[in-house]
Design brief:
Layout: H1 39-53, H2 64-80, H3 88-106, H4 108-118, H5 126-132, H6 144-155, H7 159-162, E1 163-166, E2 172-173, E3 177-184, E4 189-195, H8 199-213, H9 229-241, H10 246-262, E5 268-269, E6 273-278, E7 282-286, E8 291-292, H11 296-301, H12 306-324, E9 326-328, E10 336-338, E11 344-346, E12 352-354, H13 357-371, H14 375-385, H15 394-401, H16 415-431, H17 438-457, H18 463-486, H19 497-503, H20 516-541
Parallel strand pairs: 5-11
Antiparallel strand pairs: 1-3, 2-3, 3-4, 4-7, 6-7, 8-10, 9-12, 10-11
Helix pairs in contact: 1-9, 2-3, 3-4, 3-5, 4-5, 8-9, 12-13, 12-17, 13-14, 13-18, 16-20
Length: 545
């Protein structure tokens, strides 16, 4: 569980109020910095301009539509008349490759979409996730001369006046920016995040193209199940536009670090942004060194408890959401670094979930309702989060979806039964106006990543024992606050472990333990069954030779 006693007379002053490192290149004051002062107004401006940015125009917005059709449509066409006929993994891998190449050619906006898909293990086909993972930090880098120009323009000085050394090759290159290792003239090792030239204009142009195309896709793409294409464009626009100003990202870093410190959560460490070297397009920050998040052998050889790393990830993520309404919104392996002391360095705060107080309380009710297997509380919380309309008939939803009945073990269903059940649920949810608001989308995406992290770092973790321990932690540390904010009498919040077992489809009476490896095996049974059904249908449709 979180290490709550890391401060002492020898630690930096800013560690008292923020989850920063113990050996800083500089110490931040507990007061707004000069570059933070415009942040609140900038957030308001971005939110105010979003509706106009995603409003569908009567006429197609310029030549970007032609480029979109050329690169994405052309790739899909080549797949359709080629590898599609092979079916199965080969077909999906070829399509994923062509979509990745098309997204890369179209630039930052489409690359960012690919990066979001790459974080959706379990939500998207494995071939698509694996292929789009190449867009996380292997996007072609900008020429160094262009990067130099951006840095010098924004800092108002020649590069050599600020840095004694600046690596020409980036550490990582992604859709919006690339990161370079550097050393300040004062001797501190830093990472410099630099926005790609003219990226803001290109993102805005691409969003207008997406907004124009989206209505034509309504009902035609299954991945838009709980958010129709126009709503997906709105959601994506809300996410990506905040990434275009690095002052907002640096402010997110400080606020998340402050949140963790207020909760006594020291298992996460956030790099300090520089007190003066932050602009709209340049962010200078403290440099961390450690183990890649999937380097299990390296961590274990160094004596790091990888199960504790997973536990820290889950507890810290939940605490920030539940009690302060702020959380890192884009967890994936490239954004996490395990430090030599076993703590997790959290990187890249361009996407950060923020919950206003009403939504935070709804989110807290959602998690408490889930832990108690209280379906009514969960649906009410989803309604208050905006996932269901304000006038949604919750009793009708419970009855139509059969949520008042014992869960069915999905491994006992045939592929046809599984498909029919999924289609029935999706049709009912769409009929009730269900959608996926931004905070909930970010939360679910992070949970999917953490699920995959358990597979990598702690596959033999006993899930039921871990859930029980985490529930006990929250009861002991936050029980009174949870009860007061949710409206429960003290002591009424109790984990329903049988409900947890039922939600996973296992027998409540006979299943005493379930490792994550066993859970993945159960899921693979379902995946294999569905794949066999798809293959069989393809062969049945094929003409006889």
């Amino acid at each position: 569980m979180p290490d709550t006693d890391r401060t002492s007379v020898d630690t930096p002053a800013d560690v008292a109020w923020a989850a920063f490192s113990d050996h800083p290149p500089w110490v931040l004051p507990d007061a707004p910095l000069a570059w933070q002062r415009p942040v609140a107004a900038e957030r308001e401006r971005v939110a105010r301009e979003l509706p106009e940015l995603t409003r569908r125009q009567l006429l197609p917005p310029g030549r970007r539509i032609g480029r979109t059709v050329r690169y994405l449509g052309g790739g899909v066409g080549h797949w359709y008349f080629g590898a599609r006929r092979q079916g199965g993994v080969a077909s999906r891998a070829d399509l994923a490759h062509r979509l990745r190449v098309g997204a890369e050619a179209l630039g930052p906006t489409y690359i960012k979409l690919g990066q979001i898909i790459s974080s959706g293990q379990g939500l998207f086909p494995a071939e698509l996730v694996d292929e789009f993972a190449k867009l996380r930090d292997r996007v072609p880098a900008e020429r160094f001369a262009m990067i130099r120009d951006v840095v010098e323009q924004d800092l108002g000085r020649p590069l050599s006046e600020v840095f004694s050394h600046f690596e020409r090759e980036p550490i990582a290159a992604a859709s919006i920016a690339q990161a370079h290792a550097a050393t300040l003239r004062t001797g501190e090792e830093v990472v410099v995040k630099v926005q790609r030239p003219a990226v803001a204009e290109r993102v805005h142009a691409d969003l207008r193209v997406m907004a124009w195309i989206a209505p034509f896709l309504v009902g035609r793409i299954p991945v838009a199940a709980l958010a129709n294409p126009p709503a997906l464009v709105d959601l994506f626009a809300e996410t990506i536009t905040e990434e275009l100003d690095f002052r907002l990202e640096a402010d997110n870093m400080i606020e998340v670090a402050r949140s963790y410190a207020s909760l006594g959560q020291r298992g996460y460490v956030i790099p300090r942004p520089h007190p003066t070297l932050v602009t709209r397009r340049v962010l200078v920050m403290e440099r961390f060194r450690g183990f890649a998040f999937d380097d299990v052998v390296g961590m274990q050889s160094a004596g790091i408890d990888t199960e504790a790393v997973v536990r820290t990830g889950m507890v810290g993520f939940l605490e920030g959401c539940m009690f302060n309404g702020i959380f890192h919104g884009d967890l994936h392996g490239g954004n996490l670094l395990v430090l030599p002391d076993g703590r997790t360095g959290l990187l890249d705060f361009g996407i950060t979930g923020r919950l206003p107080e009403g939504q935070r309380l709804a989110f807290l009710r959602l998690l408490v309702g889930a832990s108690m297997n209280d379906v009514g509380t969960q649906l009410g919380a989803l309604r208050d989060l905006g996932a269901l309309p304000p006038d949604a008939d919750l009793d009708s939803i419970i009855a139509e979806l059969g949520l008042d009945k014992p869960p069915i073990d999905p491994t006992t269903l045939s592929a046809e039964e599984l498909t029919g059940e999924i289609q029935r649920i999706m049709k009912a949810l769409l009929g009730y106006g269900a959608r996926l608001p931004k905070p909930l989308m970010l939360f679910v995406k992070n949970l999917v990543f953490l699920d995959g992290a358990i597979t990598t770092l702690a596959p033999d973790l006993d899930l039921f024992a871990e859930i029980t321990d985490i529930a006990m932690y929250f009861t002991t540390r936050h029980g009174e606050r949870i009860a007061n904010e949710v409206g429960l009498a003290q002591g009424d919040w109790q984990l329903d472990l049988d409900g947890v077992k039922g939600s996973l489809g296992v027998d409540v009476e006979t299943t005493g333990a379930l490792t994550h490896r066993e859970l993945r095996e159960r899921r693979q049974v379902i995946v294999d069954r569905m794949e066999k059904r798809r293959t069989g249908r393809r062969f049945r449709r094929s003409p006889r030779s």
